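Sequence and structure are kept together here, with a separate record for every protein. An example record follows, reproduced without changes.
>
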Amino acid sequence: MTVTVIRHKRRKRAAFFVTPDGIELRIPARLPNRIVETILTEHAGWIEDRLAALPKRDVLPADRLLLHGETFPLVKSNTETRFRFDSENFHCPATWDESSLRKAYEAWLRERALTYVIERSPHYERQLGVKAERIRIGHQKTRWGSCSSTGTISINVRLMLAPQDVMDYVIAHEWVHLVHFDHSKAFWSKLASVYPNVAGAMAWLKQHGHTLQIKKTN
């Protein structure tokens, strides 16, 4: 894991972000390289400490895939023509390489994630008296969900790998933003009223969130 420097046209100042893949330094697009090098040098100790503190990723066996916090066997067969899940095993063609498998796995997770969120959202909408304008499934590096000012809610597809109650926490979190578009005391109070185990879900994501990666590892 290393420091990745990312230039943004709209960013006005440099800032570090800790991600599952390491550390990102996000900077204004025209910031001179000499200043970037100075920033990295001045923060070298901090960077080293943060990288060392990142939890080690659990290695998912090559013959298993993750869903809702559980691993299931991956069965490759010469007679299989597509990627599918039968509630006990994942299946795919024996001829697929890792790239083909990853793409099919993510596409399947995205489809299932959208269905899951759509089915869970009425539970929170009834309690909150609000409704999302649009629901989308993303694949963000650093955010588990987001709510726009226009009422579009985005949920990270990687949450399909977490236990369902953790995914429900993020869904509840974003729906509460339709009521309180901030992280004020009123927001946290309202969230606790619709999802009681906020602290537990947040702790789980802090400890295990880095392991939620949609790829097969050997």
Remarks:
- The radius of gyration is 20 Å.
- The first helix runs from residue 33 to 42.
